[in-house]
Amino acid sequence: MNTAQFTPAGTLTAEDLGRIHLIGVGGVGMSGLARLFLTRGLPVSGSELREWPSLAGMRALGGTVHMTHEPSNLDGVDTVVYSSAIPQDHVEMVEARRRGLRVLHRSEALAAAMTGRRTVAIAGTHGKTTTTSMVTMVLQQAGADPSFVIGGEISEVGSGAHHGTGEHFVVEADESDRSFLIYRPYVSVITNIEADHLNTYGDLATLEAAFAEFARLTDPDGFIVTCADDPGGRRLAQTLRAEGRRVHTYGEAADADLRLSEVVSSAQGVRYLAEIDARSLGEFRLPVPGRHMGLNSASAVLTAYLLGLPVEAAEAALAAFPGVRRRFERKGVADGVLVYDEYAYHPTSMTLAMRTLREVAGEGRLLVVFQPYRLYRTRDLQAEIAAALGLADELVLLEVFGPGELRQPGEGSAALVEAVPLPADRKVFVGSWEDAPVEVARRARPGDVVVTMGAPPISLLGDELLAALSARAGDAGGSAATAG
Question: Does the annotation list 130 as a binding residue?
């Protein structure tokens, strides 16, 4: 997607948008934006075809939800907001242009909401949702009351967006369609850079150039944070420092500005020691497992430190970090089987997630229910995705979720399942959604861990798996419990 389609952040404010309508408002990114506008006191409507969990919250805040897509939904509307998932020939997009309404990409509407705030923008191939959540909670713990929009909901908080009274605006910056290039951050955090979204960029070099362009948009009075352990992040830091830009790094690498040591991850969580400029910052603990989670949290610690916030605020916030929905989210347990949900769909994040789940499983087996996200990614990274799935003990594979994509012969999950290095009896491609719970109930044993992983729709499958496992045990729900 060409950046010329997006208008750089300027003087347009959220209040200038008038009555706002969001197409596809149930998606996590769009529902977060709707919540932000509603808590800011702006009139908001949206259209959807599926009853996503976020819609109830939108209605409770006074938003209007149309469960159809049709021209009349735009009556009385001043600004129409769409995401990259919405085609230009969508009936409401066509009607908005016919009426001469203001039409903004989600990132443009979000940029308008940031006007007048110091933006902390978190980008990267992996970990940006979790990192954005951690930075937000650290600022909240410090009493800064930031505004924020996150590509996921902070568990127990039940929200991925908030209009705060403080000067900071924390945002997850999406590189998938180049829209992160319209932001003008005060702080830019880049967690890592790996090959992804090559339908937009073509190759890794072009993707890395876009991240460099994003970093160069950072306010000269602000700063840039990158990961010293990530090859892409390290190359970026070297390039930017050579240009005289203010860059700070974190990681276990000996030359990281914020250095982690004695990192320990277990089923109970992760802990590490941190130091900066040879000065100890003490020990940090998270109640969620995964070495990569510790690395994500280090970027939040470094960002808070450079903003002049108390280190104690970071320590307290991370110790209470509840996780993010769809990021290692415990859904419940039924008939002795523990069920999680995880958003990972890139092979690197899939591998990290499954290694962490193995820590939780202990002596039990790991059963993965995976729905690939996007045909182009599944095709281009088939070998890597297959290798990651090979870490499972059992695999149930659904068809690729690729809205708007045209499937070519030989593409899709039928080809992927053949490439997964598991015995034939330990992997299966199911052609319909309804078959997945049946397969899980047939394969899972007490003591196993089951994870639904991949594209957004699969997050809805966890409850069905729990129900099937409960029914298998002859208990219509008594053995299942939601995570708490």
Answer: yes
Q: Is the pLDDT of residue 45 over 80?
A: yes
In this structure, is the dihedral angle defined by the CA atoms of residues 336, 322, 258 and 282, taken in order, positive or negative? Answer: negative
Residue 346 assigned ligand-binding role: no
Task: Provide the number of structural domains found in the chain.
Answer: 3
302 and 348 share one domain = no
Residue 171 in any domain: the answer is yes
The per-residue pLDDT for range 349-382, each reduced to its tens digit, is 888 888 888 877 788 899 999 988 888 888 888 8
SS3 415: helix
* Residue 218 designated active-site: no
What does pTM read for this prediction?
Answer: 0.70
**In Å, how far from its chain's centre is CA 394?**
25
Residues 387 and 440 in one domain: yes
Q: Which of 172, 175, 399, 439 is catalytic?
A: 172
Give the rounded percent of residues in the chain with a pLDDT score beyond 70.
Answer: 92
> What's 216's domain CATH number?
3.40.1190.10
3-state SS assignment for residue 139: helix
Domain shared by 46 and 157, yes or no: no
Same domain flag for 333 and 315: no
Residues 154/141, Cβ–Cβ less than 8 Å = no
Structural domain that includes position 225? 117-319
Does residue 129 have an active-site annotation?
Answer: yes
> Across the chain, what does the average pLDDT equal?
86
C-alpha 53/C-alpha 325 separation (Å) is: 12
CA dist list (Å): 35 to 67, 150, 228, 275, 458? 18, 11, 35, 38, 23
Has 3 been annotated as catalytic? no
Residue 477 falls inside a structural domain: no
Q: According to the annotation, is 129 in a ligand binding site?
A: yes
386-402 confidence digits (pLDDT tens) = 998 998 999 999 988 87
Boundary residue ending a domain (109, 138, 170): 109
125 is in an annotated binding site: yes
Domain assignment of residue 481, yes or no: no
Catalytic residue, from 108, 128, 175, 329: name it.
128
Q: Is residue 32 part of a domain?
A: yes
